[in-house]
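FW: tagging you since you asked about this chain on Friday. Here's the raw sequence from the shared folder, copied in full. Didn't touch anything.
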Amino acid sequence: MPPSTFSSLADLQVEVESYGLMGLTSSVSADFTRHTTVVQLRGGGAIGAGEDVVYSPEEQLDFQRAGAVHTLTGRRTLGELCELVESLELFPRPPAMAASRRYRIWAFESAALDLALRQNGLSLAQAVGREPRPMRYVASAGLGQPPTLAPVTKRLALDPGLRFKLDATSSWTPALIEQLVASGAVDSIDFKGMYRGTSVDQPADPVLYQRVVDAFPRAWLEDPDLSSEATAAVLADHHDRITWDAPIHGIADIEALPFPPRMINIKPSRIGSLRELCATYDYCATQGIAAYGGGQTELGPGRGQAQYLAALFHPDGPNDLAPSAYNQADPPPGLPRSPLTGDFSQPGFRWPPAPGA
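HL: got it, structure written out here
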């Protein structure tokens, strides 16, 4: 049996002398200003970076105001540093969402991985012994309320070959669905059926599910709510194209799904720990489960890191990892087209930024 992915990283020596936090802010839309925090671990003349994608602006500001309050200094293995991070209370106050703890752990552990690789003169690709390939991506676009085709056509004007993952809502009309079908650009539909108490909740809607299933016979169907008999019946013959995102925090969640999946969305920040992320990649490989990656509206190094992992582990999936500028209401022209390529020879865990990435 080949060594586990984590074992190829865990024994890397890493020395932390200090760390710092840097806040990032971007107005994504009229009603959504995104706040994230870059974690920078410093040591041996190198800086390792990760990004905290906690969604609460107040929790981000609390984090930044508190500053570097944890003792991470010293020389240890990367595995030991990750264990230390996971033992700490990383929030000044308990977070409103349990998932936020994983997001913050990933910010520190991705920074630790970046620093360890830089100090050892290794790229992530070299360290795990994998050959990166051009990373195919799709773009997400909210269609507004009331929903219109405009966000799709605006982006297709920039890149006629762009593919999409769209969040279906009960406000989608048959006419709008016909327009989306005519665009020929939809690879996957996200039902958002696994979210509770968020701004993107979409209750189970068998009418919507039936319209989508009929209109997009080859699209992936992400996160349906199968708790009602009506929606479960609509999708009973389509299990082979159902994928899962929000419930997936590691191997146990995959095994707890109602049926074995062909495909899942692996978000590094949603899993949180580097050890569990690596184990999840290994598990999917042994079980024959395909994967794709997803973003969290990152503003800094987090998007490039997710793209890097996708290039290593699932470059051909419908990776929801378009350059971050596609999240803007009016994306600029000249964005790099899919598939993305990068220089993987440099030490560390950061994809050299392309324009708009």
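FW: The first helix runs from residue 7 to 10.
HL: agreed, and The first strand starts at residue 13 and ends at 16.
FW: great, closing this out.
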